[in-house]
Write a structure and sequence with these properties.
The structure holds two protein chains of two kinds.
Chain A (H helix, E strand, L loop, with lengths): L18 H5 L5 E9 L5 H10 L4 E2 L14 E2 L20 H17 L12 E6 L5 H14 L8 H5 L3 H10 L5 E4 L5 H14 L5 E8 L4 H9 L29 E9 H6 L3 E2 L1 E10 L12 H14 L6 E5 L6 H15 L5 E3 L2 H4 L6 H15 L1 E2 L15 E2 L5 E2 L4 E6 L5 E9 L4 E2 L7
Parallel strand pairs in A: 4-5, 4-6, 8-17, 10-11, 10-15, 11-13
Antiparallel strand pairs in A: 1-7, 1-9, 2-3, 6-7, 9-16, 12-14, 15-16
Helix pairs in contact in A: 3-6, 7-13, 10-11
Chain B lengths: L1 H14 L22 H15 L8 H5 L3 H19 L1
Helix pairs in contact in B: 1-4
Classes of the chains: A alpha/beta, B mainly alpha.
């Protein structure tokens, strides 16, 4: 073995990564709360539907703005803005903010965490990912301005559409006064926000981080630009068949909306208040393709690098990882490049792999956080959800696919990756919960 | 006309999700009454500008924020009359 290589069984591609990280003292972070709003429903409904192989995708209803614009979409459950924000503030707030706050409400309730009682407000943080900001309300105001002029433009517009308003309004609602930030790395925003949470906790900057991502991209202009770019799945007879990561007949991704929020907490903080963990968040890695604004590197090198960095950061070997929740969206190029990256990183230690986007569609900035939550729930339950519609695996995407049905197996470590327009790659590593109290493996709470 | 502006204002505040069940011309915009924040005052001014063709400047906002709804109605009528006389 080379003197510079880690004293582990890592694949050659991962050698040389993270020696400094391995030596760095770490603090553990526990995932103690999960809140999801996806096309499959809330957190429990989403995980159950994923494992049962049910799709959350369908034709947009006739009254929806993207009806007739795209043949299939993933709609999150309706949320009345006045149920999550004061009525006087709720009128001019984009859906991405409403979804973020609703998911955060659910995550904080699930964690049983009261800001000001269980955590010092100055030691609580928020990091949320968002790609577009509030384009739906912005578009309506642009149209209003051109029709009616100055008085059609609402003075509250920015307070409802700026990309940071999910984090800001969440902080206001709960009186969170520590670090707050918003990540905008397109489709890896949600995963990157979770990585930031681990970094904040390790650096001693927060005891609790409410982290995740949300997106509300279902408006005609955005749907049309993706469609014109030939990035979206076509018009399948059954819209539930449209999203098919790694499948030979895949023809693009399905645009979806939603939010995922996790409560990530210093482990001893969680133990001190008796909080039950889903999983430990133990490592993260990010890299950049520096290749093309929208196309991934065909060799998957950037993706592989983020996975290697996450392994090194966690001090784990490729062989330790039993499951990979892939980014795989159902595009020809992206799925092939990611499969290659997974093979390069894991080699003979092939972990089980699935993509949850077959059932949820692609939640863009919400995706990485939802998938981090799903991997945490997979660790808790020992159930690996299948890739829906993976009927005929593409030979170019050869992997140990979980397909057709959920795989019941206890795994110790899982990796969740997210890649993005712009070439931003993020991988997260989670292991089984080491908090004294743990979640019920049957999925109860 | 002031009475009409008072009714318009109460309707506008209702649409803005403020509690105006007991509001009348004597209700103040401030914390003892409807409790408008600065953005809500700006929105209300915009709605009235759109409906009555009057104009409020940034310098007017602090003064509007402490008026009663009736005083606001009178102010709108005064400005509306001034606008009409100028346009004549």
């Amino acid at each position: 073995m080379n003197a510079g290589a880690p004293a582990t069984g890592s694949r050659p591609i991962c050698r040389g990564y993270g020696e400094a990280a391995r030596r760095r003292a770490r603090r553990s972070a526990a995932v103690t709360g999960i809140g999801l709003l996806t096309p499959l429903g809330g957190a429990t409904e989403t995980f159950e539907a994923l494992c049962a192989g049910r799709s959350g995708l369908g034709r947009p209803p006739a009254e929806h703005p993207v009806a007739g614009v795209i043949p299939v979409a993933g709609l999150a459950p309706p949320v009345d803005p006045t149920s999550v924000l004061p009525p006087t503030e709720a009128r001019m707030v984009d859906r991405f903010v409403v979804l973020a706050i609703a998911a955060a409400d659910a995550a904080l309730a699930d964690a049983g965490l009261r800001v000001g009682e269980d955590v010092d407000p100055a030691r609580a943080a928020v990091v949320l990912g968002n790609g577009f900001g509030g384009l739906t309300i912005f578009e309506s105001q642009v149209l209003g301005y051109h029709e009616r002029g100055r008085t059609a433009v609402h003075p509250y517009l920015l307070g409802g559409m700026l990309p940071n308003m999910g984090a800001a309004r969440l902080a206001i609602k709960y009186g969170i006064r520590g670090f707050t930030s918003t990540v905008a790395t397109a489709c890896s925003s949600g995963a990157y926000a979770v990585a930031e949470a681990l970094r904040l906790i390790r650096d001693g900057l927060a005891d609790v981080v409410v982290c995740g991502g949300s997106e509300a991209p279902l408006l005609p202009t955005i749907a049309t630009t993706f469609r014109n770019a030939r990035a979206l799945a076509g018009d399948w007879a059954d819209p539930a068949d449209a999203s098919r990561p790694f499948d030979r007949r895949r023809d693009g991704f399905v645009l979806a909306e939603g939010a995922g929020v996790l409560v990530v907490e210093r482990r001893d903080h969680a133990d001190a208040r008796g909080a039950a963990g889903y999983a430990d968040l133990v490592g993260w890695g990010t890299s950049t393709d520096a290749h093309h604004p929208t196309t991934p590197r065909p060799d998957g090198a950037g993706a592989a690098e983020s996975m290697c960095l996450a392994l090194a950061d966690a001090g784990l070997d490729a062989a330790d990882v039993g499951y990979v929740n892939a980014h795989a969206t159902g595009t020809k190029l992206g799925d092939t490049a990611e499969a290659r990256a997974i093979r390069d990183v894991f080699g003979a230690h092939a972990p089980a792999v699935s993509s949850t986007k077959g059932a949820t569609g692609h939640l863009l900035a919400g995706a990485g956080a939802v998938e981090a939550a799903v991997t945490a729930m997979a660790l808790t339950t020992g159930l690996l959800p299948p890739t829906l519609n993976l009927d005929d695996p593409d030979p170019d995407c050869e992997l140990d696919h979980v397909r057709k049905t959920a795989r019941h197996t206890i795994v110790d470590a899982v990796l969740s990756s997210s890649f993005a327009f712009g070439g931003h790659n993020t991988s997260l590593l989670l292991t089984r919960a080491s908090t004294r109290a743990r979640r019920d493996p049957t999925g109860g709470q | 006309m002031s009475h009409e502006v008072v009714k318009f204002t109460i309707d506008a505040l209702r649409q803005m999700n403020f509690d105006v069940e007991d509001a009348d011309a004597d209700t103040v915009f401030g914390p003892a009454g409807v409790d408008l924040d600065s953005m809500a005052v700006a929105e209300l001014a915009l709605r009235v500008e759109d409906a009555y063709g009057v104009k409020f400047g940034e310098e007017d906002m602090d003064r509007l924020a402490i008026m009663t709804i009736g005083e606001f109605g009178d102010e709108v009528v005064r400005r509306s009359s001034a606008t009409e006389s100028v346009s004549k």
